[in-house]
Amino acid sequence: MFDPESLKKIYKLFRWPEDLSKEGKERYEGALEEFGKIISHRWIEEVLRRGRVRIVDICSGTGVGGIALAKRVVELGRDAELTFVDLREDALEKAVEFSRAAGIEAEALVADARELYKSGIEADIAILWGLSTPHFNPIDLVKLYGSVSTILRDGVFIVEEADRFTIMTGYKDFLLERYDERGPVFTAHYDHDPLTGYTTRIILTKDGTHPMHVYFWDIASSIALSWIFFEDVDFMRRGAYSGYILAHKPRKFDLNIITGIPSVYAPRT
C-alpha cells in the first residue's frame, strides 16, 4: 500500500488533478487563499519572526500546498526554503517544475513519510496537504506524526483534515466518485481488515481497475494523535466538517514508538 507504482496507478485512475490544467490551477489558487488565512495564526507568526523559514511538504504530490505556503511566506518579506517529500518520483519532478514556474526554488526528496526521522532534514513548518491521511492506518499515522515531530525545529505541523464520519453514514458499497469528459470513476467495497483498520475499495474506470486501501479518519482522532507528539494543538475550521489541524512544539518521546512495531504487526515466524 506504500508501493510507489501502486500509488501512481491510484492517482492516475482516480484522475486527481496533478497538472496546471483548469482544475489544477483552481486547487493552487484555493491553497493560496487558505494559507492566506492560516499564516495569520499566532504560532505561524512566531515562526515567521525567524526570517528564513524552512518548509517541508510531506506526501506533497505535485506540491500545490507547499508552493502556496512558500509563496505567502515570500509575500511577507521572508525567505522560504521548500522541500517536497513523496514516494512518487514523477510527482516530485512536477512539483519542482511547478515551484519554479511560481518563482519558488525547491528541492525534492523521495522518502517514506513514516521514516522522516532518517532523512536528516529540518523544518520550521511541515505540512500534510491534500487530505492525505486516509493513506495511513492508525499505527502508520502514529509513525508519520511522530516522525514529523523529529524534523521540526520548535515549529508547526499543519494537517489539512476532514471528518469522514459523515461520509461513512452514507457510504455505499458502489459509489460514483468522479465524472468528467473522460467518463465515470467508481469505487466498490471489497474488504475490511479489523487489525489494520484499512478498507479496500476497488477503483473502476474504463481505463482499468486497481485496489485502494483507505482509513476513514475523523478530525478528533487526528487531533488526538497530534497531541501525543506536540505540546499544543489548535484547529482552524474551513467548513462544517473540514479544516486545518495545527500542532505546535514537538514533545520529547521514546523513539521506539516510531522506529519499532507492536508484536501484533510483526511478521510471524
TrEMBL record:
Keywords: Methyltransferase, Transferase. It comes from Korarchaeum cryptofilum (strain OPF8). This is Methyltransferase type 12. CDD domains: AdoMet_MTases. InterPro entries: Methyltransf_25 (IPR041698), SAM-dependent_MTases_sf (IPR029063). The keyword Transferase applies. GO terms for biological process: methylation. One of its GO terms (molecular function) is methyltransferase activity. Residues 55-155 form the Methyltransferase domain. It comes from the Archaea.
